[in-house]
Amino acid sequence: MRAYLASSIGVACAAALVLPLALPASAAPTVSRTPALTAPAGESAVPGSTQSLPLRSLPSERATGAARQGLARSDVRPFSLVGIVWDDPEAELNGSVQVRTRAIGTGAWSGWQSVETHNHAHAADPGTPERDSGTVRGSTAPLWVGASDGVEVRVRAEAPRSGTGPAALPRGMRIELVDPGDEPGTEPAGEVDPATDPVVDPAGEDTAQGPEVPEGTDTGTTSGQVPAPALTAEESAASAVNAELAPLGATEIPELTKEQTDAELAEQFGEEAAAAKPYVGPRPRIVTRKGWGADEKLRERDFVYTKSVQAAFVHHSATGNNYTCKQAPSVLRSIYRYHVKSSGWRDIGYNFAVDKCGNIYEGRAGGVAKAVLGAHTLGFNTNSMGIAVLGTYSQSTPPSAAVTAVARLTAWKLGLYGKDPRAKTTLTSGGGNRYKKGTKVKLNVISGHRDGFVTDCPGTQLYNKLGTARSASAKYQGR
Question: Where is this region: Disordered (predicted)?
Answer without folding.
Answer: 38-70, 177-227
